[in-house]
Amino acid sequence: MSVIEHRKLSKDELDILINEAVESETKFLRDLHMDIYDFFKLNSLVQDGLVIDSRPIYIAALIKDKNQRINFWTVVNSNIDCAITLSKYVRRELKNWVNKFGVIYATMEKVEPKNMKWVKWLGFSEYKEDDNYVTYRIGA
Fold first, then answer.
1. H runs (alpha helix) in the chain
2. N or C: fewer beta carbons within 10 Å in the chain?
3. Whole-model pTM over 0.70
């Protein structure tokens, strides 16, 4: 039976997650040109992670943008065999965050259809789109 830990990731765990995740999951963070752990520590309203059998597989954070909108940021590790566990966890946590913070947005580049399908499956609806990005929202 797997050991599942639902908690904030340590710096080492976040580094492992970022290094193991596929490029489409981490490009936006690498483009920040700052330490990713510090970015989340300094900018997150809330963050949470999932570690299964000592392997970090997921991080999510809510971060306000320059317009004060709350944005949902996530990274999912590659080659995971716990998609159902992850899906249940994320939907439950996202529901709690919507209840606490209200409307939440998710913006992504149009490079990975699986990511767009995932965010829709979580309950987000398309809000705005341009040539390169699509923004989704969930909540009131």
1. 11-20, 23-30, 36-43, 83-101, 113-121
2. N
3. yes
Signed CA dihedral, 121, 124, 126, 128: sign only: negative
Cα 101 to chain center, whole Å? 16
Tokens of 94: 């996202």
Question: pLDDT digit string (tens) for 98-122?
Answer: 999 999 999 988 887 888 888 998 9
What are the pLDDT digits (tens) for 36-59? 999 999 999 999 999 999 999 999
3-state secondary structure of 21: coil
DSSP 43-61: HEEEEEEEEETTEEEEEEE
Q: Which residues pair with 37 in a beta bridge?
A: none
d(CA 95, CA 32): 28
Both structure tokens of 111: 């490079």
